[in-house]
């Protein structure tokens, strides 16, 4: 079924997003209470049952359920209400003004992810207003705190409401449509890398800088970091990524196409083109553990050799890798009794969501209605979303925002002048409605 939304409905979608953007939910502190009240007013006006819970003063999680016929378990439309900080002075338009310029709605959260939240909300309202009773319950779940780990948001809700795990699937942020050189394709993230944060601490003899002795804490740390940086972590191919390359093969340059078609074969025979393909940063992160050195601390005074030096390394592991095994490997790479390697945070390591499911096919069909013939593919997302809490319990999660974004627009997420085009809002809400309609029957 194709939707034919009215210009008034589109205007309402844009206007609702503008007002939602104007609620500053920068986390910390979050202030999702006000955002939840805004959404609750809309949902209750439409006669949709809504519940708001407060994990802490000012913080809130909202659940609204559009009742279905009870055929099949519910599907959750997940979104987070908080946003990351915006450096106001660097923006062309104030980040919480909801201003429209040259066909774009600017604002912190337009892409991550208040925009998607409003697409989900409006799709729910569309079904309700059209008098469509879905086969199953559709749960709109707007949570707090995603940007600082979800402890007061998704995790808080799942600890208290285990029924939210008895569902057939979750649609959330993560992947989306990509526009590049006039071509568009759609990445539905079905897996994410496993976070492993590491602290590396070196000790050594201190003293006056006029008589330096090696090794010192600092030189030991530098050597350790250099070993990690130069270590050739071998590529790992998981089925999700193999399928991703198979589907996007026609978009690659001619020489790469046969290799992408059969990545497993290419890995087996160690195809010489692999090196070139996997050198691209995006391809690299989808096939390798990565270790980014992000914090360095040592010394206070220029003429004193310090006794301690520490670094922090943000590691993202290929799914299926146990963070403890990875830490053991790092210790062997560093191989220095005066340098300690410890994990400070180990992420959840859930199995990837399968892509041969009715919900994935509903997304494929909805995209095809609005961008006929475009490639839709499962995908491994390098970052982390709230989906990990659901996937850890075996719930299929599809991380997919139906906006078509050029790479340049994507880079604005968490950055300066985050924005979404009015065309994308129209496209997104139509696709979202069709995903819900295609899930049925
Ligand atoms: Zn987000």
The number of helical runs is: 15
Name the bound molecules.
zinc ion
Low confidence ranges:
none
Rg, alpha carbons: 24 Å
Mean pLDDT: 96
Question: What's the quick description here?
Answer:
The protein is an alpha+beta fold.
SSE map:
Layout: H1 7-21, H2 32-45, E1 49-53, E2 61-66, E3 75-80, E4 100-101, E5 104-106, H3 114-129, E6 138-143, H4 154-160, E7 169-180, E8 183-192, E9 194-203, E10 207-208, H5 217-230, H6 239-248, H7 257-261, H8 263-268, H9 272-278, H10 281-287, E11 290-298, E12 304-305, E13 308-317, H11 323-334, E14 339-346, H12 358-370, E15 375-381, H13 387-391, E16 397-406, H14 407-410, E17 419-421, H15 422-439
Parallel strand pairs: 3-6, 3-7, 7-16, 8-15
Antiparallel strand pairs: 1-2, 2-6, 4-5, 5-17, 7-8, 9-13, 9-14, 10-12, 11-13
Helix pairs in contact: 1-3, 3-15, 12-15
The structure holds zinc ion (ZN).
The site of zinc ion has 5 residues, from loops.
């Amino acid at each position: 079924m194709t939707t034919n939304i009215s210009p008034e409905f589109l205007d309402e979608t844009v206007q609702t997003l503008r007002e939602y953007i104007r609620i500053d939910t920068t986390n910390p502190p979050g202030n999702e209470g006000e955002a939840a009240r805004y959404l609750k007013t809309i949902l209750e006006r439409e006669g949709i049952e809504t519940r708001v819970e407060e994990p802490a003063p000012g913080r809130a999680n909202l659940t609204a359920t559009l009742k279905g016929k009870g055929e099949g378990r519910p599907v959750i439309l997940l979104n987070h209400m908080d946003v990351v900080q915006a450096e106001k002075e660097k923006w062309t338009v104030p980040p919480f003004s909801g201003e429209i310029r040259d066909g774009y709605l600017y604002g912190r959260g337009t892409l991550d992810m208040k925009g998607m939240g409003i697409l989900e909300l409006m799709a729910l309202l569309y079904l309700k207003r059209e008098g469509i009773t879905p086969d199953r319950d559709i749960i709109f779940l707007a949570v707090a705190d995603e940007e600082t780990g979800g402890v007061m948001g998704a995790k808080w809700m799942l600890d208290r409401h285990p029924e939210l795990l008895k569902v057939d699937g979750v649609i959330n942020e993560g992947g989306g449509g990509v526009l590049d050189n006039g071509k568009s394709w759609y990445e539905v993230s079905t897996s994410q890398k496993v976070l492993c944060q590491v602290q590396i601490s070196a000790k050594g003899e201190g003293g006056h800088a006029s008589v330096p002795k090696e090794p010192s804490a600092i030189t030991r740390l530098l050597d350790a970091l250099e070993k990690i940086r130069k270590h050739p972590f071998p590529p790992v191919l998981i089925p999700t990524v193999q399928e991703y390359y198979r589907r996007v093969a026609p978009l690659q340059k001619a020489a790469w196409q046969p290799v992408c078609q059969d990545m497993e074969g290419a890995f087996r025979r160690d195809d010489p083109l692999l090196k070139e393909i996997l050198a691209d940063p995006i391809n690299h992160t989808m096939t390798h553990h990565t270790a980014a050195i992000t914090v360095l601390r040592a010394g206070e005074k220029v003429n004193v050799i310090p006794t301690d030096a520490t670094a922090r390394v943000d590691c993202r592991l290929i799914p299926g890798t146990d963070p403890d095994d990875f830490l053991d490997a790092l210790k062997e790479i560093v191989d220095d009794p005066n340098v300690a390697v410890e994990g400070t945070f180990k992420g959840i390591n859930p199995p990837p969501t399968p892509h041969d499911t009715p919900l994935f096919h509903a997304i494929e069909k909805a995209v095809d209605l609005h961008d006929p013939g475009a490639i839709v593919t499962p995908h491994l997302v390098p970052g982390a979303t709230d989906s990990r809490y659901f996937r850890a319990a075996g719930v299929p999660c599809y991380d997919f925002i139906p906006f078509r974004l050029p790479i340049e627009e994507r880079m604005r997420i968490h950055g300066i002048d985050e924005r979404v085009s009015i065309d994308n809002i129209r496209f997104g809400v139509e696709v979202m409605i069709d995903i819900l309609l295609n899930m049925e029957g």
